[in-house]
Each structure stands twice: as structure tokens, then as C-alpha cells.
């Protein structure tokens, strides 16, 4: 297969170009711990240059120091992934620093449970703002660079979004979280459909309970060592970046062995 090339003269004004000579690059939200950091480690080991983002500068600095000690090229940007202006600045930083975007990992997320009739609308608004609106804003802004990178990279480029099994089959008391993750599943399908000709595709990773800070509240009912490992998600994420551009994987459920094959 020949790799499409981008003719600078044919580019529309404002369309970014991508650096064919730079290492493959990934931008990861929520990259300072948990699943995001596990994905960062694995992508760095595969040669990706990284932009890591999260709200807390200190934990980002710790994560970056660990990755650099292992030889990774990492920059960090503290940003709230619910704030579209902060996300625009994050993307701009990534584009100027790395010159290309091969993998956009939409990982930052939140989840607080309550029955539907005891869920204040402000809780719904916070979930939507981070889990869906922020993710949508970042993808929307990043698509020109993802397309430009796909034009110079034979494997194409990928959006990898952390949804959840709850986005496929809602769990009790997680109606709002489940709905936002279902929206992410739908968004990844839309990206695959709309971007089919550009070399950009998207995958909603849909795991059951993963042993991270976010799932610690569940330990009374489910031991940490029975949960999916963050490294399992990292292994899947890096595998997606190794596929040819001809393979689209819009949804990837990851069940806990021994668990129900629906829900967690
Ligand atoms: N753990 C599970 O069982 C599980 C299962 C299915 C899906 N998921 C999904 O996987 C993703 C990662 O979860 P995790 O378990 O790895 O969580 P985690 O261990 O709690 O880590 C969350 C990461 O996101 C960052 N973050 C949180 N709120 C943010 C915000 N508003 N803006 C920017 N960054 C933010 C955190 O750093 P700061 O706090 O410093 O911002 C941290 O780096 C989430 O989308 C989650 O819904 C998790």
C-alpha cells in the first residue's frame, strides 16, 4: 500500500501540516496515574514521544520523571480536561512541541454513583463536562492534526478513548457515568464513519473494574487482585497503534475474567 502524501499547495488555509521526520507522538489526558500512566509507559517503550496532561502539576512531574528515567521523551501540561480553552492550549502545545499526533488518548474521566432520583443535576453536569463534552472538544480540535499526521504515516492515526463496560450495559446507581461512557462509545463509532477516508479511526476501550484509585471504593466487594490490570489496557492501546490503517476497531469490551459477561 502506498502512503498518501500531503501536497502543501493543496492544503486549505489553516490546515496544519505534520512532521514526517519526527517520532510518532501521543497526547494523553489523565496521564499522571492509573490507566493513563500505564498507557504512557507502554507507548513510550514503543518509541512514542508524549504529551501528558492532568490537573495536578506535581503528580505530572513525578510521572514524567519516571518516564524520562526509562528514556522517554515527555512534556507535561497541567490542564482541566473539562475546560475547552485549557484543552485548546494543551493541543496547541502538543502540536508546536511534537509536530504530529499519532494517538490521542482520551482518558481523563470521573465517576460518582447514586440512584437516578438522588442525583443532583450539578453532578450530571460535571460528568458530562469532563467525560463527554471535554473529550468531544479535544477530538474536534485535534482532527486536523490527526488527519495531517495520517497523511504522512502509513499506519494512520488513532483516537483511543476510555469508555467503560458500563457504557455498553449500565450498572445500578451509575446512570450518569454509564450514559457519558455510552456517548463516548457512540463518538468513536462516529469518528470511524466520518473519517473513514482520512486514515483516522477511533476505539472506545470498554473495561470492567480496573485496579486504580478510581476503583478503590469497590474493594469491599471486589478484591484489587481480581480486577483488570492497568497494564492490560496499555497492552491493548499500544496494539491498536500497531494495526494497519485498514483496521478500524470502534468498540473494544474488556471483561474481568470470572466476572459476568455483562456489566463489571
Ligand atoms: N478504574 C476503573 O475501574 C475504570 C473502568 C472503566 C473505565 N475507566 C475509565 O478509565 C479512565 C481512567 O481511569 P483511572 O481508573 O485510571 O482513574 P484514576 O486512577 O483516578 O486516574 C485519573 C487520571 O485522570 C486525571 N484527571 C481526573 N480528573 C481530571 C480532569 N478534570 N482533568 C484532567 N485530568 C483529570 C487524574 O489526575 P488529576 O487528578 O491530577 O487531574 C489522573 O491522572 C477514566 O475515564 C475512567 O472512567 C476506569
UniProtKB/TrEMBL annotation:
Residue spans of biased composition, Acidic residues class: 1-10
A Pfam family recorded for this sequence: adh_short
Keyword Manganese: no
Keyword field: Oxidoreductase
One Gene Ontology molecular-function label: oxidoreductase activity
The Ketoreductase domain, residue ranges: 24-220
Region annotation Disordered: where it falls in the sequence: 1-22
Claim: Nuclease is one of the keywords in the record: no
Superkingdom to which the source organism belongs: Bacteria
PANTHER family, per database record: 5-KETO-D-GLUCONATE 5-REDUCTASE, ALCOHOL DEHYDROGENASE, PUTATIVE (AFU_ORTHOLOGUE AFUA_3G03445)-RELATED
Family recorded in the similarity comment: Belongs to the short-chain dehydrogenases/reductases (SDR) family.
Record protein name field: SDR family NAD(P)-dependent oxidoreductase
